[in-house]
Amino acid sequence: MTNTSTIDAVFRALADPTRRSVYERLLGGEEITVVDLTRDSGVTQGAISQHLKSLKLAGLVSERPAGRRTYYRAAPAGLAPLCDWMDHYSVFWRDRMSALGAVLKDIDPS
User: Fold this and answer.
1) How do residues 50-72 score in pLDDT, each as one tens digit?
2) Which of 60, 81, 94, 100 could form a disulfide with 55 if both were Cys (CB 3.0 to 4.6 A apart)?
């Protein structure tokens, strides 16, 4: 199982709808600045910066300084702890679905 504090950081970062929106925008693939992320978001530049900080601490975003600007990019590998956590529980659901399939087949064998 993956480190609990890492999973908690990812869950905490993605729990906020604005952070999820910022992360999804970054998943577009291109690097983007805070100014560009702020544009048409309805959120202040300071708030976007704080959301980026949370995403970065969770390992979901990387940054690249270039002169006066900093460019941000999604770091999809940061989702690995979440994927590992879900994989751990997939065995539970796979077994339950198999059992459900058997019950349904017994009810209606056609």
Assistant:
1) 999 999 999 999 999 999 999 99
2) 60
Rounded CA-CA distance 51/83 in Å is: 22
Say how far apart CA 69 and CA 50 lie, in whole Å. 16
DSSP 30: S
The whole-angstrom separation of Cα 4 and Cα 26 is 25
SS3 label, residue 94: helix
80 close to 1: Cβ distance less than 8 angstroms: no
Backbone angles phi, psi at 71, to 5 degrees: -105, 135
The CATH code of the domain that includes 80 is: 1.10.10.10
Q: pTM value?
A: 0.75
Q: Give the number of domains in the chain.
A: 1
